[in-house]
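Re-run with default settings, no changes from the original entry. Doing this only to confirm the output is reproducible before filing.
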Amino acid sequence: MSSKPKTDDEWRAVLSPQQFAVLRQKATEEPGTGAYTNTFDQGTYNCGACSTPLYKSSTKFDAGCGWPAFFEALPGAVRRTTDKSHGMERTEIVCDACGSHLGHVFRGEGFATPTDERHCVNSISLKFNEDK
């Protein structure tokens, strides 16, 4: 995380209300509504708040869950925390650079991925930069 984090007012000034709700207040976008759910172009997915690179498109896969799914983040880009909201315990993932909420990680679901993990990420938490 940066040495001087932005205030909520500073984030509101640069994010749309929906981005603020998801990235800063940990809301979840509706399944199947995100811009990147069915995107499989080559490139890099960056944090929707601070533009830090988070995922390579080569780690994205179709999990059929309604949100973009990745099996691995770029080294050091994503931090995991325990989320005990909604009466369950899950692993939340946030951008390590700015602390913005990305989504959750699920393990052992049987997807044929090298890590046996699914990073379930809100599209609105991402900005895609296509390879040129």
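DSSP finds two helices and nine strands in the chain. The beta strands are 43-47, 53-56, 60-61, 69-70, 78-83, 90-95, 101-107, 117-121, 126-130.
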